[in-house]
Amino acid sequence: MSIRRSLSTEVAVVDAVVNVLVEAGIDHVFGMPGGHTCRLFGALEARQAAIRTVLVREESLGGVMAEVAGRLSGKPGVLIGQGPWILGNGLIGIIEGYLSSSPMLLMTDFSDSPRYALHAPYQQGTGDYGGWDARQAFKGVTKQTFQVLEAGQAVQATQLAIKHALAGQPGPVGLLFSGRAWQGTVGPNTVPRIYPTAHYLSKAAMCPSRSHLAAAAEVIRESKAPAIIAGNGVRIAGAFDELRRFAEEVGAPVVTTATGKGCFPENHPLSLGTFGTFGTPIANGCVSEADVLVVIGSKLSASDCAWENPELIDPERQTIVQIDVEARNASWTTPCEHVVLGSAEIVLTELTPLCGGAAQEDVEGRLRSLRDRFAMMNTFPTPRPGDAMSPLTAIMEMRKALPDEAIVTCDAGENRILMMHCFQTRSADSFLMAAGAGPMGYAIPAALAAKLLRPNRPVVAVSGDGGFAMTMNGLLTAVEQNIPIISVIFNNSVLGWSMHVENEFANSFKDFNYARIAEAMGCNAYRIEQASQIGPAIAEALNAGVPCVLDIVTSHEITFKNVTSPFSVKLV
Ligand SMILES: Cc1ncc(C[n+]2csc(CCOP(=O)(O)OP(=O)(O)O)c2C)c(N)n1
Ligand SMILES: [Mg+2]
User: Fold this and answer.
1) pTM score, two decimals?
2) DSSP H/E element including 241
3) CB of 187 within 8 A of CB of 7?
4) Ligand 1 shell residues, CB under 6 Å
């Protein structure tokens, strides 16, 4: 009786589709008009008070921005643009979203002329006449892809797409609209009937089973040396406070996965940093010695977990409790004795009071012993006289100069691996890394989206020179749309990661002065060659209110090998 159709009069279908986004609480969309999507952008103009439309310079930036908006907001991040270019250019953010479980809506068109779909193609993605098949192509990188052939389906398809993006383990969902689907009106007699969007959004998040909670709590209470592994699922659930309360109640050290870094402040007495392949000695030592591992929102991917080295994680010698929102993830990578299904914030809220009176007595003593035996960070070779600044120096200077609440976004390459190992976060929700696919060019668009969603926090993008040059056109958007991010480049003039994996061939770039390029774009910019310049430049950038770039000339003597954990087994 309480469900009623939502429209009482006929309205333009594109207006009704935009209204669905508003009803779902989506407040930003990213993209570039093209093909039939121009109609959707037209309808967005009237709703700017509710949904800010961010025009990007290239779809790859829009894809990452939508991915990060999804990751940070828990609502689908929306990318709008023409099908071929969303797939061709926007894929880096979409693949990251697919692998890192970020809710996304990809609103695109077939670029078809419906009457001529069977005839020779011009951009059309229907797959007819040997044209490219958008539906098939989107399928490989989405949880679900809907094709929408007529106006009557458009509203409901958008509602279903939001539902599918959010239900269970989140992810990208494709909405492929035929040109015809965005023409005409919808109203009270439209078939299928149109109901309010709220009915399609999950009302009750999945509640964990009582008996599974009780069994997990018993194992945790009886543990002598528990450790918590926090993953990206904690961020997606926004369960930062719940994680802290749980860790403090149990008295368990917390380590994070790569994508989980930033879920738990690393200056908290229970934090031991990032664990795994590039983890800190103390985080890996703690995980290795733990009798019970509580894994929250992590698939424990092999690439994160020292390539399944049993000296690090071993289900035969350790009891593993896995908390995950998705049943399919249970025991996928490592068999786990106890699985509690549910969203991290709900499970932790219910589990924490059940874990009171844990058996381990001397948490302080255990932490002291870990600190005595394992370092907080690897030791690094001393720079040679005449070397350019070490990226480690740059990281330490940055950390000193940035306030606790700053959000850092990372790119790909050695700069990312070094940041993961060495940069200490000091607040929750403060570090974003694309460890699902690991695309270069991620940091700048990620920072743009983070700044839009968290306008009161400083946001810093850290890239290598390779990654920076891939998406430096994001600085044009930062200037045009007044998004004052700080972009830091570790400019070593090489693709450090690739060069150190293999050899020097095809890995070197010219030493561009990116500061001058950024200045020409309208940013405040600093070319930095001395460590002492970093602090003052960041202090100025934090107060500038305009996008700023620090082009830091760094050496490439320290490599990813210097932060590879001894637990990481060599792949054959
Ligand atoms: C879009 C994309 N292309 C290629 C790669 C493969 N790749 C990973 S890291 C890297 C080198 C990155 O160089 P740079 O951005 O200068 O960072 P550095 O390693 O020098 O710190 C390459 C080519 C990738 N991850 N993403
Ligand atoms: Mg480089």
Assistant:
1) 0.96
2) helix 240-250
3) yes
4) 92, 411-415, 438-441, 464-467, 490, 492, 494-498
